[in-house]
From TrEMBL, chains A, B, C, D:
Pfam families: TetR_C_24 (PF17932), TetR_N (PF00440). This is Putative Transcriptional regulator. Residues 32-51 bind DNA. Residues 9-69 form the HTH tetR-type domain. GO terms for molecular function: DNA-binding transcription factor activity; transcription cis-regulatory region binding. Keywords: DNA-binding.
Length: 199, 199, 199, 199
DNA sequence: CATGAATGAGGTTTCATTCAT
DNA sequence: CATGAATGAAACCTCATTCAT
C-alpha cells in the first residue's frame, strides 16, 4: 500500500510544516494527530514512522529550533568584544528569529510545558544559555562602566521577555518590517541598560 | 445527601483555589476535572453545581481577574494628569498584580487560547484596554515632549510584555521583593520611553 | 447518563465473570476490552471505573485466585502431621480447585506471561509457596522413610504439573466426577512418591 | 536490491531461529514482526517472502516440530512389543524432546491457542496421536496384567502432562542433565502405571 | 448540594500487511 | 530477494459530562 513516488524527506517536511502550523494555531494539547496526519497527507498511524510519540515530535521541533538559534547567535557574537556590540548582535539575532520564524518561536515560548518532565528540564538547561550569554554581556558592560544597570537579573529578564514576546504580537502584515523592529529594539535595549543612544 | 456544613461560597472558594493551583502547575488541557474535584474535596460530578463546563470555569477565572485588575488600574490612575505619573502608576500596578497574584496572571497570559473562540474574542477586547491605556499615556507623553519614543506601538508592546512576563520568572523565594522589582521596573519603563531617570 | 438501579458490586461481578469467560476462551491478548464491556453490559470506557488497565484486571483475577487457594490449602493442611496425610490433603485440595474453578486455574496457568515484569515476579513469588509446601512434604516423607523419591525436585515438578494440567483437559461433561478424579490423583501421587497404596 | 550473498535457505533459518527465540520469550501475541525482522536481519516487509502471515509462521513451526517428534517417536517404538518397553521408549523420547528442543516444545504447549480455528483443529488432531499411542500402550499393559491402572484416561493425562511440563520448568543450567531426568521420568511413569521398578 | 455510576466521543498508538521501487 | 513508505483496522485508555439517587 505504498503511495507511488513518496519519499521520506519530502514527507517529513510536510509533517513538520503541518505540525508547526497546527501547534501555532491550536496548541499542543488542542491539536490532534488526526489533523496532523491529514494536513500532511497521511493516515494517523503513518505518523509514527516519523516520530515515536506526539510529545517527541514537539520536543524535536523545539530542540531543533533552539539549536539553530544558538548556533546562529554564537556565530553572530563571534569576534565581538565590546559589550555594546555584543548586546546589539544579541538583540538583532533574537528579533530576527522571532520575526522570521515567528510561528516556531511562539510555539517554543508557550509549549515547553507540554514536554515530559525530563525533556522539559533538558530543554530548559539548553535554553538557559540565552540567559547566560545575555547575563555575561550585561555583567561585562557594567564592569566596564558603559552600562548602568539596576539589578542585572531583572534587566536581563525584562530585555529577554520583551524580545521573546515579539512572536506573540508581531503581525507580518502590519506596518513594521524587520528593519524597523530591529532598529527599535536595538534602541530599547540600549536604553534599558542605561546607555545613551549613539545617534 | 447534603454534606453537613457544606456551603456554597466556601466550597466555591476551594474549587477556585484548587483550579488556580492546577491550572498554574499543569495548564488547562493537562489538568482534569477529577484532579480538580479531588483537590476541592468533591466528586467530579459535584463540580457542575459550580460551573457549566470546564472551559466556562477558566473563563470566569480569567474575566474576574481581568476585571479586578482593570478596576484597580483605573483607580490608581484616577486623578493623575502627568504622563510620567500615569506611567509610574501603570507600571506599579502591573508589577504588583504579577507578583502578588502571580499564578493567576500567569494562567491568564497562557491559557487564553483554551477559551472558546467567542469567549476568547470577548476576553481580548477587554484586555485591549490595557493596551489602550498605555498607548494613551505614551501618546500624551510624546505630545508633551517628555517622552522620546521610537514607534509607540513597539515601545508599548515591549513594556507590556516585559511586565506580563514577570509572573513567568518571578520567584517569591528569590532575592527580590515587590519593592525592588517595582523600583527597577519603574526605572526600566522610564528609560524605555526615553525619559532620563529622576534620580 | 447513569443507568437506573446500577450498583458497583453487581457490575463488578458481571465484569469479573465476563472476564473469566473471555480469558478462558480467547486468552488475554486475543480478548479485547470491547468484548469485555459488551459481555458485562457496559461501554468500553466504563470498565476503567473498575480497573486501571486491562493488565491490572488480569493481575487482580490471578492474585485473588491464588490467595484463595493458598488460604484453603493451608487450612486443609492445618493440624496434619504425617507426610502421607499432608500429601493427600495437598492433592485433594489442588484437584478440587482445578476442577471446580477450572476456568480460572486454567487462565492462571497460562496467562502469567501477560503480566508486567514486576507483577509477574510478584505473582511467581506468591506461587512458589505451592512448590515450597509440596517440597517440605516430600522432604519430610523421605526423611521419615515413608517416601521413596528419586530426585525430590523432579518428583515435585511432575506431581505439581500433572495436577495443574487438570484444568486444561478436564471436561465437566465427561465421565469423571470430582470424586473419581480425586481418588485417582491421590493414588497417582502416592505411587509417584514410592508409597505402596493403602488398598 | 538483492543483498549480496543472501540465500533463501540461510535466511529462512535465521527467521525461524529468531522466531523461536521471540515466541519463547514473549509469546505469539506479544511478539511482533518488527522484532522478528530485526532479529533476522531483515526489514519487516521482507518477511513475507518467507511466510504468508504471522500466524502461518507459527503454524509451520508447530506442525514441523510435531511431525519431527512423531516420526522420531514412531521410530523409537518400532519393533518394541512389550508394553513396558514401549512405555519406556515413549517416556525417553518425550523427555528428550522437551529438554533438547525445550523452547519449541514450550511454544507448542502454549501457543496452539493463537492458531486460526481451522489450523488449531488440524493441529490438535495431529497431536492426538500422542494420546492414542500412549493410550494403546496403557491399554495393552493393563490387558496383559503388567500395569495396574486406575482410570486409563486419567493416568494417561497425568503422565503426558508431567512430561509436557518439563519444557516449562527445566533449566539447562540447573543440576539435572538429560540422563538424570530421563531416568527419573522412567521411574515415575512406571510407578504411575502401577509397575514395580525393575531396579 | 452531593455522590455514584455510567456514557460517548475522541485521543494516541500499535501492528500485520501491502506494494512500488 | 529486499527495502522503504505507507495503510487501515483496531487496540487501550481518558475525560468532560450526565443524571438517578
Amino acid at each position: 500500500m505504498r503511495v507511488a513516488g513518496s519519499n521520506r524527506d519530502e514527507t517529513w517536511k510536510r509533517v513538520r510544516a503541518a505540525g508547526v502550523d497546527l501547534l501555532y494555531r491550536h496548541g499542543f494539547e488542542a491539536m490532534n494527530t488526526r489533523q496532523l496526519a491529514e494536513a500532511a497527507g497521511l493516515k494517523p498511524g503513518s505518523l509514527y514512522y516519523y516520530f515515536a510519540s506526539k510529545e517527541e515530535f514537539l520536543h524535536r521541533l523545539l530542540v531543533d529550533l533552539l539549536d539553530e538559534i544558538i548556533v546562529d547567535l554564537e556565530q553572530n557574537l563571534d569576534g565581538l568584544q565590546e559589550p555594546v556590540d555584543r548586546l546589539d548582535a544579541y538583540v538583532r539575532t533574537l528579533v530576527r528569529w522571532h520575526v522570521v520564524r515567528r510561528e516556531e518561536t511562539f510555539i517554543a515560548s508557550i509549549e515547553v510545558r507540554s514536554l515530559t518532565h525530563d525533556r522539559q528540564e533538558a530543554y530548559m538547561r539548553l535554553r538557559d544559555r540565552f540567559d547566560v550569554i545575555l547575563a555575561d554581556i550585561l555583567r561585562d558592560g557594567a564592569a566596564d562602566g558603559v552600562f548602568d544597570l539596576t539589578h542585572p537579573r531583572i534587566t536581563r529578564n525584562a530585555i529577554l521577555s520583551s524580545l521573546t514576546a515579539i512572536s506573540s504580537w508581531y503581525d507580518p502584515a502590519g506596518p513594521f518590517g524587520l528593519d524597523v523592529l530591529t532598529a527599535d529594539f536595538l534602541e530599547l535595549a540600549r536604553r534599558m541598560v542605561g546607555l545613551r543612544s549613539a545617534g
